[in-house]
Design a protein that fits this description.
Shape: globular
Length: about 210
């Protein structure tokens, strides 16, 4: 990989905390995970609706739902924005304090049937350690196939896609950014996730119930 590619890859690396995170055994009950089809990120720029890929990335989806259901993301920001690449959030408060997370989860980027990092997909951010993803995620602004899992080289697990509000994501991508302490590409004006909540799919009667965290 060339120097530019390595820089892009390094730009996704994040610091993670060593707290306990429920995965398959300790996350949301299977009945709850199966009922969830979408998550809404209500931001100060507008709403972004994510369709979750439970079949392709069950551990990551369960992990994300657990954070959403516990209200973890409420009040956090998109803390790294690189126009033409991705927008990343889910770990820092507006004053750039990193929120304590649960324990890291297993990387699913090498699984059969895995999804690719196309424009509009949402994936788990991680450090150089393969199984280190916790709460932070990013939305791809373009096809970033160098982030996909390849033969003997794990990538970044895609666990859903934007189905509404990609225009909001593109708006976020264009905000002015700068440095905040040791962090770069931070929006000058905070882009806040005011609330994240679940849309429960009531397939038996065709209705949907909004469940707020």
């Amino acid at each position: 990989m060339n120097v530019f590619g390595k820089w892009l890859l390094a730009s996704l690396f994040i610091m993670v905390s060593g707290y306990t995170l429920a995965t398959e055994q300790g996350g949301k009950p299977a009945s709850v995970v199966d009922a969830v089809s979408q998550v809404v990120l209500q931001t100060n720029k507008g709403n972004i609706v994510l369709d979750l890929a439970e079949a392709e990335a069950p551990v990551s989806v369960s992990n994300f739902i657990n954070y959403v259901d516990n209200g973890f993301y409420d009040g956090l920001i998109f803390h790294r924005v690189i126009n033409g690449f991705m927008v990343q959030g889910g770990g820092f408060t507006p004053d750039m304090t990193q929120k304590e997370t649960e324990k890291p989860i297993k990387n699913e980027s090498m699984q059969r049937g895995r999804l690719e990092n196309h424009r509009g997909t949402v994936a788990m951010a991680r450090t150089q350690i393969v199984d280190s993803a916790t709460s932070q995620f990013f939305i791809n602004l373009k096809d970033n196939h160098f982030l996909d899992g390849q033969s003997r080289k794990p990538g970044y697990t895609v666990f859903g896609r934007v189905v509404e509000g990609m225009d909001i994501v593109d708006q976020i991508a264009r905000v002015k950014t700068g440095n905040r302490g040791p962090y770069g590409d931070v929006p000058v004006e905070p882009v806040v996730i005011e609330k994240a909540y679940l849309l429960l799919d009531e397939s038996d009667n065709g209705d949907s119930e909004v469940k707020e965290s």
